[in-house]
């Protein structure tokens, strides 16, 4: 192409005044970190959920049920007390299973239903069993609140417990248990049965938040380390390629200077052209960590060049993160044409946040079209153009967001 | 400032060129390219812009290596441009940001060094008549311009720049876009003229603009209203 023996310029340095490019990988890294953190938080939260569901159901079954059955006919309306117990048991099992399967039932209707049961049981238990274990709502209900409201803000749980306390105190007053001892028992019962669920609920929420933060920090750190390693690797590879290219360039220049190589010799000219193209490509690489698309294209270019093809690769802008299929649809037709190219080739990549256009131009010649990969259609997102006009063969792929 | 700040090139007399580069071998190479064109004559060469222009104050076009003695001389470029010197920058720094910075500073044209042989003579001739010349590398920089305040280019202008950058053949671009080569050049040049509004004003930019209006490439009323592309951002087909 343009570079000829007399016009081959050596760079004065190996690192150009590089354009500060946005990190192409940081977006996906952040997403990855958030996902990893969420996974860790989820695992740590699962243990607390199992605890809450188990306590609610075991208490309900082991303490509530025998007491209700024992009290039996002594209750004012035993059917309501037992029916309420059954309803809550069924609800608790379903809500618990759903919670453990990450598909919690809607909280508001369930909470409302629990409160209705609360009121009904207090109304039907009778004065004699107001404070006995047969009035199972004292002990068990708060744990079901927990199961129903898991993962919601703690103030909702507090509101529900307040409603429960109001119901209980109203019932105590309406049953005429207004003596100091009864009020004290009621208060103690409420305090005793509410404090532990609240502690478990708040503790689990705090633990989940903490583990999420720590996992996010760890994931971000890992991503940074990985990126640094990739950058280090890229720098190392570039250094090696520069050594290789510099050697090739200085060899041919020395031979020219010594008069051992003839500038008119086509082979010497080809060597100059190849060395110049390689140097230009190295100078043009301004990205610390190559975008996978550019990495693939550079690899294809290096391969073509090793087969003796002088090739220019010019990239403008940084591609956004691209799914593998899109990347493949962008690169494959080009690499196929590249394998078929003779004399010279020019590969360009122009990228913006919403568009990436890759193009390969090679001189046209007799012969069939390259049997390229049929462009994989990625939902019509990548268009593939191939044409030859007698002068050039032009392959272009273009991706739109 | 206006176009009159630039000394007009006398018709019939060869265009006087001054070459500023700190590598004698490059000066010799450029001189050899320009020698193939009788309408051009090299008046002075050297590695210091001030000295070269003292030796040849009548130079119509200055070919300036953007890196002199290890530093980028964008400030010197701006100074020369606002003083009405037609500067064609040529540099091995063909990264888009540097090219756009050179345009902003008032360079009439930017030539990547590896494009020199094919485009040098044409660039200098066009620069001497205050006409835009956009080699492929510059077209790439313009079409990929990521700055929020970049000029608003029409879809055809963007497409013509992109295809010209890709193929380096206006004939192929014309076939591809199904328009004439002349129209391809018009689209490319119009995009370039829009860049005379980017960056600070310079006599050279005013001259390019005035000549473009004179040539009918753009209409005066098209020029004053370039909005920021950020406000009307739209995808290109």
From TrEMBL, chain A:
The keyword Cell membrane does not apply. The chain crosses the membrane at residues 50-69, 81-100, 107-125, 131-150, 157-177, 189-210. This is Histidine kinase. Residues 1-27 are annotated as: Disordered. It comes from Micromonospora andamanensis. The lineage of its organism: Bacteria, Bacillati, Actinomycetota, Actinomycetes, Micromonosporales. Keywords: Membrane, Transmembrane, Transmembrane helix.
UniProtKB/TrEMBL annotation, chain B:
One of its GO terms (molecular function) is DNA binding. Keywords: DNA-binding, Phosphoprotein. The modification 4-aspartylphosphate is found at residue 65. Coiled coil: none annotated. The keyword Endoplasmic reticulum does not apply. CDD domains: REC_NarL-like (cd17535). The keyword Phosphoprotein applies. Gene3D superfamilies: 3.40.50.2300, Winged helix-like DNA-binding domain superfamily/Winged helix DNA-binding domain. PROSITE patterns: RESPONSE_REGULATORY (PS50110). InterPro entries: CheY-like_superfamily, NreC/VraR/RcsB-like_REC, Sig_transdc_resp-reg_C-effctor, Sig_transdc_resp-reg_receiver, Tscrpt_reg_LuxR_C, WalR-like, WH-like_DNA-bd_sf. Residues 16-128 form the Response regulatory domain. Pfam families: GerE, Response_reg. PANTHER family: TWO-COMPONENT RESPONSE REGULATOR. This is DNA-binding response regulator. It comes from Micromonospora andamanensis.
